[in-house]
Amino acid sequence: MEKTGTDCCYRYFLFVIMLSLGSDSDDDDDDDAYDSDALCWQVFTVDEMMPHVSHLPGVISKNLLVRDKKKKGLWLVTAPHNATISLSALAQHLGASGGLRLADEEVLVTKLGVARGCVTPLALINDRENAVHCVVDAKLLDKANERVYFHPMVNSATTGLSPEDFERFLSAIGHVPIVVTFDE
């Protein structure tokens, strides 16, 4: 798939931000400037993505934007790709009245600036009002992991960060994560 100007803009912007934070991120796509070609076409689910990234060292993430029943609270949930996420248990843990549901694509676009299939904690940089709470599985913050991998706000590439750089990024944009543990 040919890259669009928007793809390159998002990725360049994130790359500059991460460099300013002292990151040594890996951006795996089909661009000659990077080490591998983990993704070079759009994927919309973890199942579609895994054949292309399973060789990468570290933890591949899955990400969900959820809301409560009354549409008053939003949470971006990030977990290892193979984690089982019980929305009812998570709702109880977070105190979300009426349970949790996936947010509509319109909310993805207005709050995070991404489309369906592109949800990523890196998109929290677009949440200037801090309307979205960040929920991260503890496994993604484990410093024993070489890298944790996310879409860089487009679903045609994947970006790897060290757990320390991921935490540094979230801190720099004012989104201190709510740390939970999901079952695998």
Give a short overview:
By secondary structure, the chain is of the alpha/beta class. It has helices at 5-20, 46-53, 87-94, 105-112, 163-172; strands at residues 26-28, 59-68, 74-80, 100-102, 132-137, 148-150, 158-161, 178-180. It has one domain: YbaK protein, CATH 3.90.960.10.
Would you mind describing this structure in some detail?
By secondary structure, the protein is of the alpha/beta class. It has one domain: YbaK/aminoacyl-tRNA synthetase-associated domain (YbaK protein, Alpha-Beta Complex), CATH 3.90.960. The protein is built from 5 helices and 8 strands, in the order H-E-H-E-E-H-E-H-E-E-E-H-E. Strands 1, 2, 3, 4, 5, 6, 7 and 8 form an 8-stranded mixed beta sheet that branches. A hairpin with a 7-residue loop joins strand 6 and strand 7. It is globular. The termini are far apart.
At the fourth CATH level, what is the homologous superfamily? YbaK/aminoacyl-tRNA synthetase-associated domain
| Poorly predicted residue ranges | 1-13, 27-39
CATH class: Alpha Beta
The topology string of helices and strands comes to: HEHEEHEHEEEHE
Give the percentage of residues in beta strands. 15-25%
Main sheet attributes: strand count, strand direction, barrel closure: 8 strands, mixed
Give the termini distance in whole angstroms.
32 Å
Helix content: 25-40%
- CATH topology, by name, is YbaK protein
Alpha plus pi helix count? 5
